[in-house]
Design a protein that fits this description.
With 467 residues, this protein is of the alpha+beta class. The chain folds into 2 domains: 214 residues, ATPase, nucleotide binding domain (Nucleotidyltransferase, domain 5); 203 residues, Nucleotidyltransferase, domain 5, CATH 3.30.420.40. The strands form 7 sheets. It has a 7-stranded mixed sheet, sandwiched between helices. The longest helix has 27 residues.
């Protein structure tokens, strides 16, 4: 995505899109980082006439590459969806108890976290750890391949469950428990830190002579939340994509016993803020469902058909264990319904509707927990990311929560990424100014709540199933 800031308004242009698929090799899942780098360079070539002043890279969290002492990448980075972390979380907490780990990091317990990925490698005696010298998270790795500089950006560091926000440093205690030396991790830099020029070979290849690389808000959700066009207090956000990240913005981490009990997480944001949130399985469920049909399906048509399907016939928990890594999502939905005493939807439209309603009900539960843990009264919802385009889910969310929903921008991650680069260039001075530009530049759609007894009854059923 290419951004241009002009008179307080941001223009955005789609330069290049490409699929990011996992590779399955010898029973494990990997990311093809060399393919990603090739596509990034192709997009850079397409921008050569404009000569952009800077480039910023954001990606998903937790995954990483390992470097040899000479800087060579050791193999392909594992995907967080690989099954190598099975059982690693409970085994690690024999070394460092859950409560102590939460006190040190304030991070939600998920088996995909970097902490458990590394522990699974230690448990399985991975030869990679014997020769690895440095760890770089996915956006840091791409920045390194473009500039030759090694560093870890703050927002991506906090996703790892290895960062101590109180000490503002890597947790020496957790690194000792893993048997990893401190130099294994990189120095942490803040969003908006200039990382330098492109290495000469890349600059020559792509035709960018003066472009600098910036460590933007390199965790995609951090970038998206920076682009939430909110003012004042009382708002919550839902960054809706493959995952739904549901939370509020705070000045400091919240690592209370209530936060631990409800499994909330404290991830870094722009301007020293924190995103107090919960990860909810998102549109991945819908993606896998469509994939299980093994024939093309047009997304807009699916949503329209789902709007006509029977409402609230099935109450679905999007985070149910049987839905996490199914061989066939359609079969998994039937299994979930059978296990919870419900009749599975018989039509594709009914399946899609069940997923969207399940997401809206889960958002309501997280809203209730947020209010309980933070003591805040939340009065509106900002939906950003791809989910902002899904009018049916936005209306369901407004109805389920009984709150107005403001949807947009859909390309919030790109907007936040680019606006942090603008801050690095001195074109804006603060997170508040970033959001003011987004409000001026984005079309935001409002959905008014239509609360009903049917949603309240469904939520009661949902709470019983989740409990």
């Amino acid at each position: 995505m290419m951004g241009e800031l002009d008179d307080g308004r941001l223009g955005l242009r789609d330069v290049s899109r490409f699929p990011n698929r996992m590779l399955e090799l010898n029973g494990h899942l990997f990311w093809d980082v060399w393919h990603l780098l090739s596509e990034v360079k192709s997009a850079m070539k397409a921008c050569a006439e404009e000569q952009p002043i800077s480039i910023g890279v954001d990606t998903w969290g937790v995954d990483f590459g390992l470097l040899a002492p000479d800087g060579t990448l050791l193999g392909l980075p594992y995907s967080y969806r690989d099954n190598r972390t099975a059982g690693a979380m409970s085994l690690f907490h024999r070394l460092v108890p859950r409560q102590r780990t939460f006190e040190l990091t304030g991070i939600q317990f998920l088996p995909i976290n970097t902490l458990y990925q590394l522990y699974s490698m230690k448990r399985d005696k991975s030869p990679l750890l014997d020769v690895a010298f440095n760890l770089l998270f996915m956006p840091d790795l791409l920045v390194y391949l473009l500039t030759g500089r090694k560093a870890t950006e703050f927002t991506i560091a906090t996703t790892s469950q290895l960062y101590n926000p109180t000490k503002q440093a890597w947790s020496a205690e957790l690194l000792r428990a893993l048997g990893l030396p401190r130099p294994f991790m990189q120095d942490i830099v803040q969003p908006g830190t200039e990382m330098g020029p492109l290495v000469p070979s890349v600059a020559s290849e792509v035709g960018l002579k003066t472009t600098r690389v910036v460590a933007t808000a390199s965790h995609d959700t951090a970038a998206a939340v920076a682009a939430v066009p909110a003012e004042g207090t009382g708002w919550m956000f839902i960054s809706a994509g493959t995952w739904s990240l549901v939370g509020v913005e705070t000045e400091t981490p919240i690592a209370t016993s209530a936060a631990l009990r409800h499994n909330f997480t404290n991830e870094g944001g722009v301007g020293g803020r924190f995103r107090f949130l919960k990860n909810v399985t998102g549109f991945w469920l819908l993606q896998q469902l469509v994939r299980s049909w093994r024939e093309p399906a047009e997304y807009g048509a699916l949503v329209k058909e789902a709007a006509e399907a029977q409402p609230l016939g099935v109450v679905l928990d999007p985070d149910a264990a049987c839905l996490r890594a199914p061989g066939d999502m359609g079969t998994a939905l039937v299994e979930f319904c059978r296990g919870t005493g419900q009749r599975a939807p018989r039509t594709r439209a009914g399946q899609v509707r069940a997923i969207l309603e399940g997401l809206a009900l889960k958002y309501r539960r997280v809203r209730d927990e947020l209010e309980q843990v933070t003591g805040r009264r939340l009065d509106r919802v900002h939906v950003v990311g791809g989910g902002a385009r899904n009018w049916l889910l936005c209306q369901m969310t407004a109805d389920a929560l009984g709150l107005p929903v403001f949807a947009g921008p859909a390309e919030a991650t790109s907007v936040g990424n680019i606006m942090v680069q603008a801050m690095a260039a001195g074109l804006v001075s603060s997170l508040e100014e970033i959001r003011a530009v987004v409000r001026e530049s984005s079309a935001v759609r409002r959905f008014r709540p239509r609360p009903s007894k049917e949603w309240d009854a469904a939520y009661k059923r949902f709470s019983g199933i989740v409990r």
